[in-house]
Amino acid sequence: MDKFTNTPTEIDNYVEILNKQLYFAVIKGKGTTKLKSTMDTFFFSIDDELVYENYYCDFGPLNISCLYKYCCKLNKYLQYAKGIKSVVHYTCSYPDKKANAAYLMGSFCVLYLKIHPKDVWKILQVVGPYNFTQVGIQHFDLIFPDGTTPPKDILLKFLSIAEMAPAAIAVHCKAGLGRTGSLIGSYLIKHYRMTAKEAISWMRICRPGSVIGQQQIWLEKIESWLWRTGSQYSYSSDLYKNQSRLVTNRTDMVEHSNYLKTSSEPPNWKNVALGKDKLTQVKEKIIRNYTTQGDKLNEIKAARYNNKIISKEPKFSYISQVT
Question: Are strands 22-27 and 11-18 parallel, antiparallel or unpaired?
């Protein structure tokens, strides 16, 4: 991407669409900053000209009339500036305006420049992995179809990334339904010993619609496997090794050893037997003298429940009635 002449300081980021002819830029702030054209560069913005008429909280996309006006305008600018100036379409950093501006530029690329939509998306991805790594954030792409459940390799890779991360992690889905929730739910079940229903409930409280349809059934099917691998992970960690007593007797040790042998591979995604009762019995023996974050969460839940019962005791108050 070549830098156009005398880039204004107001521009936060930009991408080249046509070699030294057309650029798409995002300026700093959410205000109404106006960029002045120069001898070498022509700047224009449609943020205040082509405005989406929303019905409620929707913000786009702009209708086909706006797209037609934009294409006519940009074609005229390109013809006028051909061989003389670079044309820069800039937009503010406000998410709604930026999304609509990117939609217009992307549509122009498909209609007039004959660029494939997938390639247009890559071009307009102004904030990408490169920007993350520049500020010390590791970036991973875990790609699988929208609305589906993650394949085995994706799930194992996500769990590995989350377990090896030295700091907080952010899980983001570019667009779609349930992909982040399915992965986060798997982590909650494995490391906090939640049931699938508990994990789904908590995620839906945090963000409604985070797990939908077949993803709910999928989490329930792999619940027992996640519990087993979670116990194995805890058992092999330094915290587990520092415990003076992990099992009560030789019988428990043999049972635990046999139990862990079956946890190295994920279950058959299509047909999984949960076996919750047996798993719970073994799990209780293993963690009898070990308190985890999941145990602490359960204690907090129990304390809240007790307080709720106490608060239900009848309270008397005097009410004055005005007639």
Answer: antiparallel
CA-to-CA distance for 263 and 231, rounded, in angstroms? 9
pLDDT in tens, 43-64: 999 999 999 888 777 888 899 9
Contact 75, 112 (CB under 8 A): yes
Q: For residue 308, what are its two tokens?
A: 């709720």
Which residue type is seen at 60?
G
Which two tokens mark 298? Answer: 């359960």
- As a whole number, mean pLDDT of residues 150-171 equals 92
User: Token digits for 133?
Assistant: 């790594």
What pLDDT, in 10s, does the model give residues 189-245?
Answer: 999 999 999 999 999 888 888 888 899 999 999 999 999 999 888 877 654 444 433
Among residues 57, 66, 173, 206, the one annotated as catalytic is 173
Task: Name the region of 136 (left: φ>0; alpha: ψ -120 to 50; beta: rest).
Answer: left
| pTM for this entry | 0.45
Q: Which of 196, 233, 211 is nearest to 150 (CA)?
A: 211
Please give the backbone phi and psi of residue 23, each rounded to the nearest 5 degrees, phi first: -135, 155
Three-state SS string over 146-206 comes to CCCCCCHHHHHHHHHHHHHCCCCCCCCCCCCCCHHHHHHHHHHHHHHCCCHHHHHHHHHHH
Tell me: the pLDDT tens digits for 276-316?
444 445 445 444 444 555 566 567 666 765 665 555 444 44
- Asked if 206 is an active-site residue, the reply is no
